[in-house]
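Bench log. Compound arrived from synthesis this morning; before running ITC I wanted a structural hypothesis for how 2-acetamido-2-deoxy-beta-D-glucopyranose sits in the protein. Inputs:
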Amino acid sequence: MHFFKTLTSLVLGLSTLASAATYTNPLKAKDGSDPHIVWSGGYYYLMTTTWTNLQITRATTVNGLKTGQTKTVYSQSSGARSGNIWAPELHWLDNAWYLYFTAGDGKDLGTQRSHVLKGGATPWDTFSFAATLTNFWSIDATIVRFSSWGNYFVHSCHLNGSPQSLCIAKMNSATSIGASKLLSQPTLSWETVDTPVNEGPAALYHGGKTYITYSASFCWTTSYSLGLLTWNGSGDPSLSSSWSKSGPVLKSANGNYGPGHNGFFTSPDGTEIWNVYHATANSAGACDGNRYTMVNKVNWNSNGTPNFGTPAKLGTSFTGPSGE
Ligand SMILES: *[C@@H]1O[C@H](CO)[C@@H](O)[C@H](O)[C@H]1NC(C)=O
């Protein structure tokens, strides 16, 4: 009897384990660059850079995104936002979903600007063009929210002759921003490999702290990696003096080169924060459609700071986000 009970609980335990969702990386093997995921209303929504249009994939599990329902929500055959379509991000603001992205005329990378589409009550609704947010070179825009200061637009730009840096502007609304200021310039050795670059910002909120991760160094190198800015909690967020920098906090490992351009999303039950980023198997580094999409849970150090871990060998099996 005792043996039987033990056996029963063992079998039950195993079946519970087996029913917990698992996943393997990569989620998207090709054109997995600049990934962004949100969890909302029972679905994960994944977007990546395809260069030619904006596509949304949805699924109820992270592993399901590999074969999720996919649709194109934006494309243009010609014009000022028809080419080099990069870095799409979904954000809920002013009671609607907005889709921020980078695009230019497709001929000259100097024409890259930040744009936004307005959607509806779910990310699966139709989007229509709302605004171009900058009249100067700007890529990789994201939103950073402060309870006492409002929403800020953080993007990568050149200001006053700076190298490619993180820039920050107060948002007047979802479709209008104020003047940009320099937030973080690439100055440290790990931010300046081949070319000084700070790009791909993403906001992270945990334990009452506000962080911004970003990607540093030239994307065609294996030194492309994540850096971390930590807000001091009281200073004007648009002043670089209110932030401290550390890094790299995620770098090449286990055959994954140049991990970067990440985003964060929450688990279905809201208890975990997950990191989605791209990397390449090209040991020389890559900045093209060969980059694949990876996800990993964010862990927390005893002093409260985020621990992004190490990109594991492709194909390693992990437990999916809590609540799947
Ligand atoms: C935060 O930074 C600002 C400068 O932007 C400074 O005036 C303020 O004293 C700092 N606060 C803390 C708690 O370090």
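What the model suggests: The longest helix spans residues 2-19. The chain has one domain: 26-317.
ITC booked for Thursday regardless.
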